[in-house]
Every structure is written in structure tokens, then in C-alpha cells.
Amino acid sequence: MYIVNSTFQVPPEKADEVIRIYNNRSKRVDRAEGFLSFQLLQNQKRAGELVVHMEWQTREHYLQWVRSEEFKEIHELEKKYPDQELASIIPKVSQYKVVST
Fold it and tell me: Where in this chain does the record put each ABM domain (predicted)?
């Protein structure tokens, strides 16, 4: 299994708005080959810290998704979000190979 976390900071007063956006996400990634799960995590001490947590069967499946046209389309739409403060956020991406369960 392969895990990808994208951690980003938003102003705490905008955290609920971002959570709503993710609750209404297109779910296109859910249909990608090798995709296993998606979770949006919120830090309990710092409400503005959010993590997109995705699980994939393999690193190759994840890379196939990142190189896909659907991935590019989704991320182009994010850049056009009306709130430019949110649209300009660049997450810190961490990738992990599961080595034991």
C-alpha cells in the first residue's frame, strides 16, 4: 500500500469552508485505478491545519493518477476558486510506502 498526505494551512475561520468544499468534491479520484481511500483530516489543536490523506494500492497507481488528464483538470479548477487566498495554498506533500501492518 502507498499513502500520500497533503498538509496545508488555512486561516482557522476558513476551515469550515474548506471542509465543505471537500465534502462536495467531485470524487473523480475515487474511480482511479488502484485508489483505495480518501480522508480529510483536521488537526484538533490547530483548526486551520488540514491533511488530505489518500491510500493507493501502489506508488505506480498514484503516479498514474497524478499524470492523468483528470488530475490536471481538477487542479486547474482549484486555481480558479473565487477566494484567491484559498486558491493559492500550496500543500506539503508526503509520500509513504506501507512497510508493516
Answer: 2-90
- Residue 83 CA, chain-centre distance (Å), reads 18
- Give pTM, 2 decimals: 0.89
What's the one-letter identity of residue 4?
V
Cβ atoms 56, 35 nearer than 8 A: yes
Beta-carbon contacts of residue 5 (< 8 Å; ≥ 6 apart):
51, 52, 53, 54, 93, 94, 95, 96
Q: Regarding beta strands 49-56 and 92-97, do their DSSP bridges make them parallel or antiparallel, or are they unpaired? A: unpaired
What average pLDDT is seen over the chain? 93
Domains defined along the chain, listed by start: 2-97 (3.30.70.100)
93, 94, 92, 89: which is closest to 17 by C-alpha?
89
Q: In 3-state terms, what secondary structure has residue 60?
A: helix
CB atoms within 10 A of CB 22: 12
Q: Cβ of 66: how many Cβ atoms within 10 Å? A: 13
